[in-house]
Amino acid sequence: MDNALLDIGLPAVLIGFACLALMVRKELGPFAGLSVAGRWLLTGLFGMGFVAFGIKMAVAFAFQRLPEQTIAPLLDRAVASRQDVEAEASFRNPAPARQAHYVWQALPEQAPEPADNPGNAAKVALGKRLFNEKKLSGDGTLSCASCHDLYAHAGADLRPTALGIERQTGPRNTPTVWNAAYMSRLFWDGRAATLEEQAMGPILNPIEMGLSTPAEAERRLRLDASYRNDFARAFGDRQPISFVRVAQAIAAYERTLITPDAPYDRFVRGDATALTSAQLRGMALFESTGCVLCHRGPNFSDAGLVGGESAFRIFPANATPYEKQYDLLLDGKRGTWRIASLRNVALTGPWLHNGSVDKLEEVVRIMASAQLGRSGKLNAWLNDDRQLGKADRSPLGDKDVADIVAFLEALSSEQLTHARKAKP
Ligand code: HEC
Ligand code: HEC
Fold it and tell me: Which ligand places an atom closest to the C-alpha of 146?
């Protein structure tokens, strides 16, 4: 390579310079009547290009001769700075890290707990006692477990809407307490953010447990020496029993009410035989129909503490005949609701916030139509390029609905399913 430079470059410069000198001496010189010095000066002026080219060649030649180590760091630095520029550019305009396919997750074996209320065995045992304590209701007839029957009714009550003290019916369906520990928002409208905050609600709610004041709860429990001991063991001191600690103990107990034992979890953890073929078809449809847009993550709700991003959605989002049929509008308006978890959903009917639907097939049809536009009427974006066109907006067929329901049944805890079958 360095030879090629010299072999071609040097003769080229010399020949070019010689031609120029000849031209000045034979033609331009005599024509302009120049002296010998004048001729060389003119040759030099016209030959500037050759001189510059000669200098460049000399520099290039010198570089080639330098030892490898001298020049390598210079080249590296040039490459590195180019990478910096590229890295910075991608930082300013990050490519979305979305996966083409939905990633299915099993329920974590342990529910997350807040730093200010760590669980321990004594606290959990106290919480369990309080969960079943009828003294916490105004007339002493109801405990949390009266409406949230853990085993016979999978943590709910199987009624359309709850039955409170003095046989008053409330406006909302009772959700299960199982896996509530994985939710970032509680209640159908998501108005409580933590189990601690939630637990104070029903005790004081006049149509649920109907206790007059927090002080009344404290007074009743402080009278009982065994409660004074249980609270001391749970919280490690002998401070007087407080309403806040009642809620903390109940919350710690609820964090143990979790069901990572559904066939779905076994399947995701690697047991390929855990789901039936109908359930597998339903699982694929659950993704392809778009249910995972909202019912996502290990607790099948975007209001999940693990991986949840956006807890609320408008429901019903699209106008359909179902909203009249099941009275789904809230004071005539489309309400904003927390996305319900679908774990154990096959065991906790009737369904929806007002408990108005008692067939799971029907809930799936309502969801597909009201939340995903599968009502045969709508146009939709065909693709990400925002082209308007007719996508498949036909209502789900009976077979598809049955398969999705089969999949929802695979979200039922095996322990709870057996407990319910064993019931007389
Ligand atoms: C009279 C029946 C009744 C009683 C008693 C009752 N609850 Fe509830 N529970 C409900 C209803 C109804 C809701 C939903 C209310 C709403 O969303 O507005 C609910 C909601 C909840 C939730 C939220 C679940 C979720 O997914 O958002 C938890 C947790 C809960 N209750 C725990 C308790 C605890 C703890 C007690 C006792 C201190 C208790 N409940 C007593 C009927 C009851
Ligand atoms: C746009 C968000 C969204 C989509 C998509 C969606 N859902 Fe829902 N889903 C919700 C909301 C919000 C609720 C709570 C409704 C309420 O408050 O009454 C809910 C409730 C449910 C319930 C009732 C839970 C209960 O305990 O009563 C079931 C079952 C359900 N969805 C299944 C599905 C299925 C199956 C699909 C796919 C065909 C689907 N959902 C698609 C948002 C959605």
Answer: 1
